Amino acid sequence: MAHKLDAAMAAIEVENPKLRGVLYRDFGRLSIDAGKIGDLLGIVGQMHFDPKEHASRDVFGEVYEYFLGNFALEEGQKAGQFYTPRPVVQTLVEVLAPFEGRIYDPCCGSGGMFVYSERFIEAHGGKKGQAVLYGQEMTATTRKLACMNLAIRGLDYDMGREYADT
């Protein structure tokens, strides 16, 4: 089962080259019970995501954000390295009012400001992708979280070639 996950991650990277090197592809080396992986895949496989039904919602993005937020709560103080609470990000975006152009976040964490900037643009009559998203993150794992967060939502971004400090 773990090898199937590795193959699935490789296939996703082929379809989305920006995720190359971002997704975990070594599930075969982990000591996770194949039954548990199968159960998880079964649950995910039963989820119904009809694009027509959820056209106005970012279901996968919402699920990702939910888990990221809960993980941040568990991490406590260390979570500040990758997660800024939703109200703080929303306030920042409302003040900046990024209608178009370039949006740069030099310490982007998991990419929340980019997500809310895109929502702001769409809420004000703009289109997805109207702004160009540039980010930098100094922690490899956090950079991967940002790349996945943006890819799940279908957002185009430039996070540089590797993680680095600004």
Automatic annotation (TrEMBL):
<dbReference type="GO" id="GO:0003677">
    <property type="term" value="F:DNA binding"/>
</dbReference>
<dbReference type="GO" id="GO:0008170">
    <property type="term" value="F:N-methyltransferase activity"/>
</dbReference>
<dbReference type="InterPro" id="IPR029063">
    <property type="entry name" value="SAM-dependent_MTases_sf"/>
</dbReference>
<feature type="domain" description="DNA methylase adenine-specific">
    <location>
        <begin position="56"/>
        <end position="165"/>
    </location>
</feature>
<dbReference type="InterPro" id="IPR052916">
    <property type="entry name" value="Type-I_RE_MTase_Subunit"/>
</dbReference>
<dbReference type="InterPro" id="IPR003356">
    <property type="entry name" value="DNA_methylase_A-5"/>
</dbReference>
<protein>
    <submittedName>
        <fullName>Type I restriction-modification system, M subunit</fullName>
    </submittedName>
</protein>
<dbReference type="Pfam" id="PF02384">
    <property type="entry name" value="N6_Mtase"/>
</dbReference>
